[in-house]
Amino acid sequence: MSSKLYQEKIIPLEFDMFVGMDVDKLSIAITVVDHYFFYKAFKIPYDPDAVVNYMKKHFPKKRIVFAYESGPTGCGLHDRIIKAGYPCLVVASSTVPTARGSRVKTNRLDSKKIANSLRGGQLKGIRIPYGNYRALRHLTQLRNVLVKQCIAYKCRIKALLLVESIKFPEAPAGSQWSKVVLHKLETLKCPQTVRFKLDRLLESLAFSRVQALKAQKEIRRLCQDDKDLADSISCLMSLPGIGWILASNLIARIGDWRLLRNVREIGAFLGLTPRENSTGDDVNEGNITGAGDSIVRNMLIEGSWAAIRKDPELKAFYQRIYNRNPSNIAARKAIVAVARKITTRIYRVLKDRRPYEIRNLVNTKNEMSSEKGRPSASGDDSTLRRTRRYIIKKCSDISYVPTVGSIAR
Questions:
Q1: Is 224 helix (H, G, I), strand (E, B) or coil?
Q2: pLDDT tens digits for 18-77?
Q3: What does 104-118 look like in DSSP terms, one character per residue?
Q4: Of 17, 57, 103, 175, which is least packed with CB atoms within 10 Å of its CB?
């Protein structure tokens, strides 16, 4: 895809005609409007070439922009329109303005709503993956589906044994589904009907595991053959708590790192930013928005537990958030905050194209407090404040007293 044609927003005055489309599997409802009073609505069979040919035939010298809602039809229509040289926005349905009192919904009305919102400059397009980024997204989605199927078959096997009051084979923690346990399940004594069902579930589990492994190998092959993907994954894996699987899923969802605009974007995309309902001087923040891909968000939060064990700075940050919240929710809030903080580091390593280096801040503070009588730095805020007060006290008999900012530096 040409980067010049890739757009997330459009400036209405740069175009003459605005085309809103409501797309389903069999047909496309189209509404065409301009800046004045022109309005035309019609319906055609689903054919991206037919859409492009119609606009070229009836509006040959007009500057045209297209928009439609994302859905199961994917990006084929978008790709064809872009290839023809027209800008096209694919928008999330939740971001299209809708009148609150509207009680009638049809394809024609939806296309009209999109066209009018496009003309008003109210639409923002999602980022369409292309090339190997789109291929990586397909493969990671496939692997996640197959892993989910494996989990489902394991639950069904346990449920079957529980219903029949058959004890699940004993195994050490973390190895409940090892080859030894699977062999015990294959030779477990049980009624013939239960045996038949259990064998079929074990076969389905084995098949899904093999397919998930094949998908994982294909992901590795794709990433190794593409230098840009390989460099991005290598940079992400330098972050504590991020392994190869999480890194590949992050790149698949984020897409081209060159399109990232600011450090807050990844956190908002993964739904790790808080909801807010503020007015005037009253600030009211709630739970996280939960937008974006819940699978990748959950994987990142799970990886955050490993990150706080490896990175002293993240551990100190986790402890600060933990201490300021009630004990029943402190751990959950703190670990989500750590995941949000990791997204800023993800942005930085992707944009700078360099690995992350863990800074041992605890050792740095110990150097400052090595003399007798100075407080030891444990990494929390109270100790840091005591250290600052001690230095200011020692410097009080000279003309220069360092400020808090200079001490921090």
A1: helix
A2: 999 999 999 999 999 999 988 999 999 999 999 999 999 999 989 999 999 999 998 999
A3: ---HHHHHHHHHHHH
A4: 103
Determine the residue type at 209.
R
Among candidate residues 311, 357, 358, 364, the one with its CA nearest the CA of residue 338: 311
- The helix/strand/coil state of 87 is coil
276 and 283 Cβ atoms separated by less than 8 Å: yes
Taking the CB of residue 117, how many other CB atoms lie within 10 A of it? Answer: 19
- Local structure of 30: helix, strand or coil: strand
Please state, in angstroms and rounded to a whole number, the distance separating the CA atoms of residues 191 and 174: 29
Q: Give the pLDDT score at 290.
A: 87
Question: Of the CATH numbers 3.30.420.10, 3.20.80.10, 3.30.365.10, 3.40.50.300, which one belongs to the domain with range 12-119?
Answer: 3.30.420.10
How do strand 27-34 and strand 39-45 relate by DSSP bridges?
A: antiparallel
- The residue extents of the domains of the chain are 12-119, 132-225, 231-352, 364-408
Contacts for 399 with CB less than 8 Å, ≥ 6 apart: none
Residues of the chain with pLDDT under 50: 1-5, 363-380, 383-384, 386-409
The SS3 assignment for 201 reads helix
The label of the residue with tokens 């399109």 reads 259
Strand partners, 27: 45
Angle 94-98-104 from CA coordinates, rounded to 5°: 110
| Alpha-carbon span 88 to 68, nearest angstrom | 8
State the DSSP H helix or E strand holding residue 39, giving kind and residue range, or none if neither. strand 39-45
CA-to-CA separations, 152 to 178, 201, 338, in angstroms, rounded? 17, 10, 30
Cα 208 to Cα 149: distance, rounded to the nearest angstrom? 7
